[in-house]
Amino acid sequence: MDDLALGIHADGSGSGGPEWSTSAVQGLDWLRVVPVLDDRRRLSRVTKRRETDLASGCDFELYDSFEAPEKTAWWFRLWTGNETVDGSEFRFFGTTGTGDYVGFWLARSGEPVTRQPIVYLGSEGERGVIARDLDDLLWLFADGFGPQEAFTDPSRTTEPSTAFQAIAERYAPAKRSPATEIVAEAQKEFPGFSELIDAMCR
Q1: Cα–Cα distance between 181 and 116 in angstroms, integer?
Q2: Rounded to a whole number, what is the distance in angstroms from the first to the last CA of the chain?
Q3: CB 185 within 8 A of CB 132
Q4: Which of 24, 91, 145, 186 is the most exposed place for a label (fewest CB within 10 A)?
């Protein structure tokens, strides 16, 4: 999965904010990229792929690049109430319609960004690890789960996405698991995430 990264691309410009106005991940440009970060936290683009029905009904807006560091620092300080933090241990790549954030948490030293755990930070202070890496997140999307749904109720009944199932089967065939297992394993591997956030809050 090292060569796929959730439609994040580099064009050398832009703030890294949402490019799409709808909350459903539909009709997005998904890009196959090499996950090598430069100083602007962007990824190198290789090829572009168009899908018209990715994750239908999924409440998630994908950014066109990683969120700019200054924007992350601004809202992360507001969210935690702590002016001494900047969220630099995260690479946020999307949000929900209610303003929740989703991103990679750089918790595994020396591992590429796509192998880092994926976290959910809710607008009301909710927080949790929802996937161990990008492979797991693809299978959540394949099963019809957005980040918020995976965090709040991974056992709920959803409508799978055939487009995402094809992507997950292509890039992460050995990682197929139900959402309940994906989320449970992620939280088991990183049990201290909520306490880490608590320590940052004021």
Answers
A1: 17
A2: 38
A3: yes
A4: 24
The residue to which tokens 């290789």 are assigned: 46
Cross-strand bridge partners of residue 35: none
Distance CA 137, CA 140 (A): 5
Each residue of 45-78: pLDDT tens digit? 322 333 333 444 567 777 777 888 999 999 999 9
How many residues make up the chain in this entry?
A: 202
Residues 143, 158 contacting (CB under 8 angstroms): yes
Phi-psi category of 32—alpha, beta or left, where left has phi over 0 and alpha has psi -120 to 50? beta
Nearest Cα residue to 31 out of 59, 68, 62, 72: 62
Give the tokens for residue 121: 């930070």
Query: What pTM, to 2 d.p., does this model score?
Result: 0.75
